[in-house]
Amino acid sequence: HIAEVENFQTNSKDEIEAFRIKYLGKKGILNEFFGAFKDVPNEEKKEFGQVVNQLKNAAQDKVVRLKEHLENNQEEQGVYGDLSRPGEPVEIGARHPISIVKNQIIEIFSNIGFNVSEGPEMEDDWHNFTALNLPEYHPARDMQDTFFIQTNPDILLRTHTSSVQVRYMEENKPPIRTISPGRVFRNEAISARSHCIFHQVEGLYIDKDVSFADLKQTLLYFTRQLFGKSKIRLRPSYFPFTEPSAEVDIYWGLETETDYRITKGTGWLEIMGCGMVDPNVLKNCKIDPKEYSGFAFGMGIERIAMLLYQIGDIRMFYENDLRFLEQFKSEF
Ligand code: PHE
Q1: Residue ranges of the chain with pLDDT lower than 50?
Q2: Which atom of ligand 1 is nearest to the CA of 161?
Q3: β-pairing verdict for 115-116 and 176-185
Q4: Cβ atoms within 10 A of the Cβ of 190, count?
Q5: For the chain, percent helix, then strand, then coil, each to nearest 5?
Q6: pTM to 2 decimals?
Q7: Which amino acid residue places its CA nearest to atom 10 of ligand 1?
Q8: What does it catalyze (predicted)?
């Protein structure tokens, strides 16, 4: 019996139970032996008892081991595990820094009544150029090197999210307050400072009597919220879709050597372009420029993120190196 018990092997729950009943059950072999104990001659009682106990221990041991083995197997197969075992910590991922900054910008503008609008990354000529006061052969088209998908009729990868604003004006009547975040594409050499794919947030505000002062105040509110810096300046500039146009600088300061380096010793940093929407653009989008006026602005998210997080190379955003990405844990 002992040899039989020790050699017994199975992976079946039912067979283990049958084995247990056979040896350890109420009418099992062991109880039979214990019942026969009183009839064993006295001088053999000692040895008989030892052997029966040995058999009992072996049978109990076997049942425990077989059950353990069965459980481990099932766990490996994912049937069920020991639910009381302590859990393994799971690494929580981090949001991408571009998403964090984008969400922050959306939050700041939504607090003053802007909604979010989106549009296609593949655009036609009308929405990316012509409606924005950039007719065919306009020299300013060269300002943004374009990836063309097809020509005549031209289909291209949008070079800015101003195209979304055109779509929004075509579909909505003023008052309009909207920001358009999204991916844009320009046929530029990739370097530490520029990439052929990047992200923008552009804003559009159209209503009766919107003035340049409204634009300035909105941008000041925005830069205070995002950077905590309270001084901006607007430098005259040119965009085909705005008139007048300006470049927005924030006063970054000259407190550290880095400040000195990134501002080239001036303390000022350019962060976006803006201006009053050109009446031609309003007309193209079926909005009467005699009744309505508005402002627009646009910024690159990568550039803002590089300033906020002191990132020196734009290419890091697209390499998906976990050592870079896991540094950004944020509520946004
Ligand atoms: N669309 C411009 C660009 O891509 C940014 C801009 C938007 C400038 C709105 C003025 C007004 O650079």
Answers
A1: none
A2: 1
A3: parallel
A4: 12
A5: 45, 20, 35
A6: 0.74
A7: 274
A8: tRNA(Phe) + L-phenylalanine + ATP = L-phenylalanyl-tRNA(Phe) + AMP + diphosphate + H(+)
